[in-house]
Write a sequence for this structure.
């Protein structure tokens, strides 16, 4: 299904509609840019209806606890007050200003304006990501072409159609296609229409987009990241039980599927016995959290079971089951490794535990510099600031409490940059006299 200027069409109409869009874009660019207030009003209306249960039929395929979490987050994150704060934080002073007079030079007027057309290629690992990415493009006044992920179940399209219902003025700025990722020709046509391509996804997805984006088109990458927990002096850490409970709950609820999820637990040690001791200490916390968060949804249970079973088959091939460095419970495992490489875990509550002495942090993390994002920290409060600064110098973007590794904080950047700022350009206009 395609959403084109407020109307839906069959996917077979894609080529014709893209040709029509090519002719349509210049006339839209002639108009005054969209103002943020129009989009914020639409999102706030969406929030009101979501909390009133008007979209419950669209969310019925999601687990109840996930729906409850989304609604709890929507109270604040989709509110008019929060969205205006986002605009002020990420765009700063959007008003025009004129530079000071310098002898021998003209003054210039400086203003931020939309890029023009943004082609969004969204990933499917978060339910509302496609609509969220498009909303950011609208907030900055851009025309938006959105390619839905293959995993999208129709939720994104329904929400975007609601945007247009709340604010019909948005219809000429929204074009949604359910194009397959294998349709390179179709995606190239979309990229040819854009000033920028905003892509979310894996290394493979981003590499593919680099190949189809025309020279001169801005590439805005939101790529794969790897989160980890860093543990130093646990025996001296205040409220250690609470922190271990928080880490276990984070792992069990995210299933390690998010960029911010904990893939590796690093210990500030080079002693393998210390790794084993920590694993034995942490195992009951993780088992309890996994048991408490076991889903009854048959589809999700099947997915998790197949993923875990595949991991175990690989383990048999590597004789992992007979390895004393594998602590396995029901639906979870802790895998002790002697190397310090930052890497993806088997996920689904199967966590790597590795040594990383403090003096080796920058050396080790430099190798994974393109994937650094979130570190959860367990350490004595007296050491927290020092270790945090070391992690930041190594390239980390977020340092949090372990329970909050995947939490959203109002005003935070995404992967170290503000999305709204990346979706605008600065223009300079010479002033007369």
């Amino acid at each position: 299904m395609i959403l084109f200027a407020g109307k839906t069409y069959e996917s077979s109409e894609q080529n014709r509609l893209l040709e029509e869009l090519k002719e349509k874009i210049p006339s839209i660019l002639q108009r005054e840019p969209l103002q943020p207030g129009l989009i914020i009003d639409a999102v706030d209306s969406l929030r009101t209806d979501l909390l009133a249960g008007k979209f419950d039929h669209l969310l019925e395929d999601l687990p109840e606890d996930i729906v409850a979490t989304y609604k709890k987050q929507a109270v604040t994150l989709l509110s008019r007050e929060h969205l205006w704060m986002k605009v002020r934080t990420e765009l700063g002073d959007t008003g025009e200003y004129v530079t000071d007079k310098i002898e021998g030079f003209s003054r210039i007027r400086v203003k931020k304006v939309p890029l023009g057309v943004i082609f969004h290629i969204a990933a499917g690992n978060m339910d509302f990501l496609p609509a969220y990415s498009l909303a950011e493009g609208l907030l900055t006044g851009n025309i938006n072409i959105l390619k839905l992920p293959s995993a999208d179940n129709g939720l994104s399209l329904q929400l975007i159609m609601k945007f247009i219902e709340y604010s019909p003025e948005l219809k000429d700025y929204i074009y949604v296609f359910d194009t397959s990722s294998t349709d390179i020709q179709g995606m190239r046509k979309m990229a040819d229409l854009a000033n920028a391509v905003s892509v979310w996804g894996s290394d493979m997805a981003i590499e593919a987009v680099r190949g189809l984006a025309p020279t001169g088109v801005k590439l805005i990458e939101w790529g794969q990241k790897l989160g980890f927990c860093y543990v130093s002096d646990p025996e001296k850490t205040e409220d250690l039980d609470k922190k271990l409970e928080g880490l276990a709950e984070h792992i069990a609820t995210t299933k390690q599927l998010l960029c911010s999820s904990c893939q590796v637990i690093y210990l500030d040690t080079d002693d393998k016995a210390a790794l084993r001791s920590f694993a034995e200490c942490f195992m009951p916390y993780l088992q309890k959290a996994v048991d408490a968060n076991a889903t009854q949804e048959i589809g999700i249970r099947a997915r998790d079971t197949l993923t875990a079973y595949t991991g175990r088959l690989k383990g048999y091939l590597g004789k992992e089951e007979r390895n004393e460095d594998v602590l396995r419970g029901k639906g979870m495992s802790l895998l002790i490794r002697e190397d310090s490489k930052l890497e993806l875990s088997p996920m689904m509550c199967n966590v790597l535990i590795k040594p990383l002495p403090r003096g080796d942090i920058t050396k080790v993390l430099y190798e994974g510099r393109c994937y650094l994002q979130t570190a959860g920290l367990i350490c004595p409060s007296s050491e927290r600031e020092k270790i945090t600064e070391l992690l930041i110098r190594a390239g980390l973007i977020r340092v949090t409490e372990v329970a909050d590794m995947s939490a959203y904080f109002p005003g935070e950047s995404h992967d170290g940059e503000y999305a709204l700022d990346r979706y605008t350009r600065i223009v300079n206009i010479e002033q007369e006299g």
Notes: The longest strand covers residues 108-114. The chain has a mean pLDDT of 90. The CA atoms of residues 91 and 184 lie 34 Å apart.
